């Protein structure tokens, strides 16, 4: 049975009320990326960075999964082959919809990371740099988020999945951030069929075999229905 690898981005959570990054009014038009999403910004002003992610954690907690997250749960449950979900999102809406296996390549709001020893633990709702690490006791707590200039999580695993994919789908991502933006090229090279589901054409639209345009809550359930009907 065919193996499906799915990459999701901020667009899948947009209709749950979580802002995207690069659309008009998006997160990066309101905040300076260099100050809140780089290791250098954190070193300069940890309190500012924690405030930013504490606010995003509160927003994510108040949000609910939408029909697109739910459709992917159906696909994971009912597809007779393997479904691998890789997300760039740091919210937990895939999990809260019921998705069992999610690879969070850019980290998670729900986890804390010790900048001194690398330990991970569940994030409290409000985090601060002076929270002691439960393993080493150092007060160097940061959000477990992959910042610009850092290596995303699970890259070897993701690359192996893409190399053996029959179908690669990108949902709600602008294709402007590497390495995720390179996945479609890798999938094409591996001989997978590639499909983009996005509100509008992205930077990378020309690289996909198939495009389905529209809001995720409409196009993702319809795509999943078509896939399951063809299985
Ligand atoms: N349905 C489908 N797609 C949507 C919707 C929607 N309702 N709303 C917006 N989109 C699309 C936009 O057209 C855009 O192409 O989602 C995409 C969102 O793009 P970005 O804001 O750039 O988000 P993303 O691609 O996830 O960003 C990648 O950038 O700053 C970093 O680490 C952050 O993980 C993030 C990475």
Listing every helix as H and every strand as E from the N terminus to the C terminus, the arrangement reads EHHHHHHEHEEEEHEHEEH
CATH class of the largest domain: Alpha Beta
User: Largest sheet, described in full?
Assistant: 6 strands, parallel
CATH topology of the largest domain: the name is Rossmann fold
How are the strands of the largest sheet arranged? 3-2-1-7-8-9
CATH homologous superfamily of the largest domain? TPP-binding domain
Percent helix range:
25-40%
Bound molecules: adenosine-5-diphosphoribose
- Overall spatial form: globular
Report strand %.
Answer: 15-25%
Total count of helical runs of at least 4 residues: 10
| Strand tally | 9
Structural class: alpha/beta
CATH architecture annotation name of the largest domain: 3-Layer(aba) Sandwich
Instruction: Report, as a whole number of angstroms, the end-to-end distance.
Output: 8 Å
Q: How many distinct folded domains?
A: 2
* Low-pLDDT runs: none
Mean pLDDT: 97
Over the alpha carbons, how many angstroms does the gyration radius reach? 18 Å
Structure in words:
This protein is globular. A six-stranded parallel β-sheet has the order 3-2-1-7-8-9, sandwiched between helices. The protein has a three-stranded antiparallel β-sheet with strand order 5-4-6. The termini are close together. The chain is 36% helix and 19% strand. The protein contains ten helices and nine strands. With 231 residues, the protein is of the alpha/beta class. The chain folds into two domains: 1-18 and 65-106 and 152-231, TPP-binding domain (Rossmann fold, 3-Layer(aba) Sandwich), CATH 3.40.50.1220; 19-62 and 107-145, SIR2/SIRT2 'Small Domain' (2-Layer Sandwich), CATH 3.30.1600.10. Residues 9-11, 14-15, 20-23, 26, 88, 106, 172-174, 176-177, 198-200, 202, 215-216 line the site of adenosine-5-diphosphoribose.
């Amino acid at each position: 049975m065919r193996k499906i690898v799915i990459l999701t981005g901020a667009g899948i959570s947009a209709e749950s009320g979580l802002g995207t990054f690069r659309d008009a009014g998006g997160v990066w038009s309101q905040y300076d990326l260099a100050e809140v999403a780089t290791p250098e910004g954190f070193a300069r002003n940890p309190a500012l960075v924690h405030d930013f992610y504490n606010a995003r954690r509160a927003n994510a907690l108040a949000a609910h999964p939408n029909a697109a997250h739910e459709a992917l749960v159906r696909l994971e449950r009912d597809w007779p082959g393997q479904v691998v979900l890789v997300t760039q999102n740091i919210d937990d809406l895939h999990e809260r919809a019921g998705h069992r296996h999610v690879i969070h390549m850019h980290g998670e709001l729900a986890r804390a990371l010790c900048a001194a020893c690398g330990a991970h633990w569940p994030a409290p709702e409000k985090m601060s740099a002076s929270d002691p690490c439960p393993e080493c006791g150092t007060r160097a707590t940061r959000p477990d988020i992959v910042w610009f200039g850092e290596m995303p999580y699970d890259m070897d695993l993701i690359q192996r999945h893409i190399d053996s994919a029959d179908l690669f789908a990108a949902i709600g991502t602008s294709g402007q951030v590497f390495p995720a933006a390179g996945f479609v090229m890798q999938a094409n090279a591996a001989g997978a069929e590639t499909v983009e589901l996005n509100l509008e054409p992205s930077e990378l639209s020309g690289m996909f075999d198939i495009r389905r345009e529209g809001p995720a809550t409409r196009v993702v359930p319809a795509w999943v229905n078509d896939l399951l009907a063809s299985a």
